[in-house]
Specification:
Length: about 170
């Protein structure tokens, strides 16, 4: 969303939320590249070690993602919902995408923690599909936040609401 063709300048707390996407995207893209390779070598008969390695990366990513998501879910989304509602529209979409990503990351982690011993290529691909689905959801989600939601919040929220958002880091 742009005003008169120029990018919208975000207040400090919104700019900070946006800036957190870069490192999160790098971690997410790195685990997705690794996940995409799992199950592809026809000569490999056990993928359990690869899944364990991926699990560490995904769990590290989730630890970084959680505080970011919490600031959005507990502060930004409720502030915006006062203006646009929560049942339909952008806040409902954002909350649904957060939940979908969390579910997929949790399914991957649960499966990775409970491997049945040797993991063949088909099972490995099934397990990593959850991490890849979370990557797809979050890639699109970050883009929507950066291009639509954050600029919308900049225009919509008043100074007091922006101050509430800023206090989320204190």
């Amino acid at each position: 969303m742009q005003a008169g063709g120029a990018p919208v300048e975000l207040c400090e707390p919104l700019a900070r939320l946006k800036s957190e996407h870069g490192p999160l995207r790098e971690q997410m893209d790195a685990y997705a590249r690794e996940a995409a390779e799992i199950g592809t070598n026809p000569n490999k008969t056990d993928w359990s070690g690869d899944i364990a390695s991926l699990q560490i990366k995904v769990e590290t990513f989730v630890r970084e993602l959680d505080p970011h998501s919490e600031r959005e879910e507990e502060i930004l989304f409720p502030l915006m919902a006062k203006h646009v509602g929560r049942q339909m529209g952008p806040i409902a979409v954002m909350e649904h995408e957060h939940e979908l990503a969390k579910q997929n990351l949790a399914k991957f982690t649960e499966n990775a923690r409970n491997l049945p011993g040797n993991v063949d290529a088909d099972l490995a691909k099934e397990i990593v599909s959850y991490a890849l689905q979370a990557h797809a959801v979050l890639t699109e989600h970050f883009m929507k936040e950066e291009n639509v939601l954050f600029p919308m919040a900049e225009h919509m929220l008043n100074a007091e609401e922006k101050e509430q958002l800023a206090r989320a880091w204190e």
